[in-house]
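Show me any protein, fold above all:
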Amino acid sequence: MTAPAIEARDVSLRHGHRAVLRAVSLPLSPGDCAALIGLNGAGKTTLLRLLLGLIRPSCGEVRLDGRPLEKHSRRAIARRVAYVPQAHTPSFPFTVREMVAMGRAPAAGWGPRSAAADQAATSTALGRLGLLACAERPYSELSGGERQAVLIARALAQGARVLLMDEPNASLDLGQQTRLMTLLRGLAREGCAILVSLHQPELAIRWFNRAILLHEGAVLDDGAPGEVLTSARLSELYKIHAEIVHAHQTALLVASPCQDCDEMFDRQQSHH
């Protein structure tokens, strides 16, 4: 079995009396393309921030390349782990190329050879996300979906082998979303370890080789997406009637309110 590139070992996190994460163990190995699924407030973003070392667990530990995360410098972590947030608003009018080139900061050296390598990595990342045509445009003028693509390109330029992404497809159109999912699968085949928080179980089934179901700060299940994200499990989790339909080599989620939900909504409407 391949050793984990990054791993949460029995980590818990509390805010006051509230348990945000509860005894979460999550190894992420090269070749993993894992979807992190859960309700809003399940702890998905908190878990990503903990894996990045931005917050520390109340107990348990995170290990990177087999060593405790706190034994690595921030620069060393940045060389190995890249993060794509949900959204980003720039403080200055950087161009798209400049934004992507910022991903090279952890690996930056001195001299012409280093500069050439940085330029090549930036151009390659721009090309993989289809951004070369708008490379000189101000980042602030882009649409939400285009900005998200730039953030992903910046992570690729960084050269990290662990990629953590927080709902990266939230602002992407269908074409961008499909290209992103194809790219992630390709990166996993190249040996990257990828963890992506998602709100679309059907995407996890179609594109990912692993699904982690997080609920109220604890891992409910972790395994093959088709086995973890069943119709019964999704119906119970989201309190709806959910059915996963497989057709034309893809997965569709058919959802409708459950009777209890309808009755609750009717009662709420009657009070207004």
